[in-house]
Specification:
This protein is of the alpha/beta class. The protein has helices at about 1-15, 35-60, 105-110, 115-135, 145-175, 180-190, 210-225; strands at about 25, 70-75, 80, 85, 90, 95-100. The protein has one domain. The longest helix is centred in the C-terminal third of the chain and has 28 residues, at about 145-175. InterPro entries: Uncharacterised_pept_Zn_put (IPR007343).
Length: about 240
């Protein structure tokens, strides 16, 4: 199981590196009383963030650059950010912060509450941070061209799925995952596809994430890959 093995190994790694990921909790409103379950989720998020920092740090170093680590901000309900008000989980490119509600309301809605599902959600947002700070090619979109904007939105989101796959391969190679974790990941991406009936209202906007088939199709190359170049959704047809 991802939780026990990943937590144990990563806590030892954090001590070894003398480095802990940057996580803070928003103080805009009084949080609900803490319980053991809340602490477990925060522990999991801390470990996952540390593992993403180790992976992307090594990846950027291999490419001759330095990885700038994002900050993770935990909040309840909604929060005002440099990118506007958000709820659920969101990455803000303006301040390099990931905003996440540790209750994972979106996962609860689709019944995907496993530990690796939570880990994958955070890994995807870290993927958006990688897009923001790296030289990943982003094709220009002509103002007012809604179809081009939709395609670019899909490309950006599918690349985040692929980056999450790269990270998943990294933790898999450390023997920290099981087949059931990857099954859980594919089940989550399938449930979040734009073609799912539960996501019909989301499809009315120009924002697209990709169909269930597309999302799994791009997660798997990441899982089989080793580098950012393996996730070039902008060069390959959707």
């Amino acid at each position: 199981m991802v939780r026990s093995s990943l937590v144990t190994a990563s806590l030892l790694a954090i001590v070894t590196w003398l480095h802990a990921p940057t996580i803070c909790e928003a103080a805009e409103a009084a949080p609900p009383a803490a319980n053991a379950s809340d602490d477990d989720v925060k522990q999991l998020l801390s470990v996952v963030l540390a593992e993403t920092e180790h992976f992307w740090g090594a990846t950027f170093k291999a490419g001759g650059s330095t990885y700038e680590e994002p900050k993770l901000v935990l909040f309840t309900g909604s929060i005002a950010t440099a990118c506007g008000a958000v709820s659920g989980t969101s990455y803000c490119a303006a301040d390099h912060r990931i905003y996440l509600d540790p209750a994972f309301p979106g996962l609860r809605e689709i019944g995907s509450t496993g530990d690796f599902a939570k880990a994958l959600i955070l890994a995807r947002e870290v993927g958006h941070h990688v897009q923001n700070i790296s030289e990943v090619p982003h094709p220009d979109v002509t103002d007012g061209n809604q179809q081009a904007a939709i395609i670019r939105s899909e490309q950006v989101e599918l690349q985040a799925d692929c980056f999450a796959g790269l990270w998943s391969r990294y933790v898999w190679d450390q023997h920290l995952l099981e087949d059931t974790d990857l099954t859980q990941a594919r089940g989550l991406l399938r449930a979040l596809g734009d073609d799912q009936p539960a996501n019909a209202s989301r499809n009315s906007t120009a924002k697209r994430y990709g169909t269930s088939e597309q999302r799994i199709r791009w997660f798997d190359p990441g899982l089989a890959g080793k580098a950012i170049a393996d996730c070039n959704t902008f060069a390959d047809p959707l």
